[in-house]
Amino acid sequence: MSVGFLKSAEQAVAQQAAGEQFWLESIKDKAAADFFAAGLPSRRVERWKYTELKSIAQQTFDFSGAAGSVEIDEIDALLQRECTALLVLIDGEFDALHSRREDLPMGLRVLTLSEALKLIPEQIEPYLAQRFAAPEDAMASLNAALLRGGFVITLDADLGVCPTIEVLHLTSNRSTPMAINTRGIVLAKAGTRARVLEHFGHIGGGNLLNAVTQIDLGANAELQYLRLQDLCERGRLIARVQARVDTDAQLRVGMLDLGGELSRLDTRVELRGDRASVEINGLTAIKGRTHSDHQLEISHAARDTVSMQNFRALVDGRARAVFAGKVIVQVGADGADAKQSTRNLLLSAHAEVNAKPELEIHADEVKCTHGATVGQLNEGAMFYLRSRGISEVQAREMLLRAFVTELLATFDGAALVEPLAARFERRFF
After folding, report:
1. For a designed S-S bond to 109, which of 154, 304, 363, 388 qualifies (C-beta 3.0 to 4.6 A apart)?
2. 391 SS3 class
3. Do residues 9 and 210 lie in contact, with contact meaning Cβ atoms separated by under 8 Å?
4. Nearest to 243 by CA among 301, 166, 312, 191
5. Measuring CA to CA, which residue among 201, 227, 214 is closest to residue 90?
6. DSSP letter for each residue of 243-266
C-alpha cells in the first residue's frame, strides 16, 4: 500500500541511526522541523508555480536503502576522459571502482562527504548548517534532514594549476523508487582556479535525486562550473545551487539540460564582494513529456558587480520548459551591471515555454537589461535553405544545430564542448 512521500520521509527521519556528531544531529533535527512545517512545495508557492509535485507526493519512497549498482559500460560512456579527478556516486554512495583521485596536485582535495566529516568538519559545518526555512526552499531542508552522501572539493592557496574535477551522479534501477539527498560543497580559497563538472547521468526510472551544491569563491578566485543533466526518460531531479562570490572573484556557469521526466534547478548567486562577477549560460533541449524548470536569482550586494544570464531552450513534443530569472540590486550596490536574456524555440504545437525575467533595483547608477523571446524556427531561413536544394528535415536540423552551437561555444574547453554537443545530437535528433 502506498503511504506517500511525506509519510515515507517521516519514517526515514524517525529511523535515522544515532551516533553522528552532535552538531550534525542538531542540524538534521532543525532541517526536518523546517521541512515538515512547510511540506512539499505546491503551485501556490510562487517559485513553484509551474512545477507540480503531485505524482511525487503520492508515491512511497525508500530514503535509506542500500546502494545498488550500474552497468560498467553505462558509466564509461558518460565519463570525461581528461580530468584531474573523478568522483562517482551511485545512489549517493561513493563508487571506488570507477572513481579516480590518485596523484592530486598539492592544494586540491576531492573528498566524499563522509570523509570530509571526519577530516575537515570545522570547514564544512557552516555550509551544512545553512537553514532553508522558507516554504519555497522545503526540498533543500529535506536535503539537510536526510543527507545520504555527497562530495567536498577544496582548493587551497598552494594550488598552482587549474584542475578539472568531475562528479558523476547515478542511481540504480529498483522495484521501490529511492529518494536520495546529496550535498556538494566547493570551497575555492583566494586566488585559486579550477573547473568542476557535475554530471547527473541516466538516473534509474522512478527514483528522485534531491541535490544541493554550495559554492564559495574567495577573493580573486576563478571557477568554471559546468552542470549536465542527461536523465533517463523517467529520471527525476530536484536541485539547488547556492553560490557566494567574493571580491574580484569570477564564477562562470554552463548548464545543459537534456531531459528526464522532471528536472528543476534553483540557482542562487550572491555577489558579495566589490567587482565580483558571474556569467551563466544555459541550454535546455527537451521533447516528449519532459518538464524542465530553471529558477535563477542573482543578488548584487556590493559595488561594481557584474552578472550575465544567457539561456536558450528547444522544446518539442509535449515538453514544457520554465525559465524564471531574477536580478536583485541591493541598497549600496552602485555600479552594478546586469544583463539577462532568454530565447526559446517551440518546435511543436503542444510544446510550452514559460519565461519570466525580473529586475528588482534598490540602488542608483546601475545598468540592468533583460529580454525574453518565444517563437518558432525562422521561416525566411528555412525558405532560403530549401531554395538551395536542402530537404526540410536537413534545413531544420541545420538551424537547430546553429542555435545550440552558439550557446555551447560559451562553455570553455573543446574537450568538454564536443561531447556535450554529441549528447545533444544523440538525444534530440
Report:
1. 154
2. coil
3. no
4. 301
5. 201
6. EEE-TT-EEEEEEEE---SEEEEE
**Domains of the chain: which residue ranges?**
5-273, 378-429
Per-residue confidence in pLDDT tens, the chain, 429 aa: 457 999 999 999 998 876 678 899 999 999 999 999 999 999 999 999 999 999 899 999 999 878 887 776 655 555 556 789 999 999 999 999 889 999 999 999 999 999 999 999 999 999 999 999 889 999 999 999 999 899 999 999 889 899 999 999 998 888 888 999 999 999 999 999 999 999 998 777 789 999 999 999 999 999 999 999 988 888 899 999 999 999 999 999 999 999 889 999 999 999 999 999 999 999 999 999 999 999 999 999 999 999 999 999 999 999 999 999 999 999 999 999 999 999 999 999 999 999 999 999 999 899 999 888 888 887 788 777 888 888 888 888 888 888 888 888 887 755 667 777 787 888 787
Give the single-character DSSP code of 28: H
3-state secondary structure of 107: coil
- Tell me the C-alpha distance between 285 and 407, whole Å: 12
What is the spatial distance between Cα 280 and Cα 284, in angstroms, rounded to a whole number? 13
State the cell numbers at 295.
529558477
251 within 8 A of 215, measured Cβ to Cβ = yes
Q: Compute the distance between CA of residue 115 and CA of residue 123 in angstroms, rounded to an integer.
A: 12
Closest by CA position to 112, among listed 149, 148, 79: 149
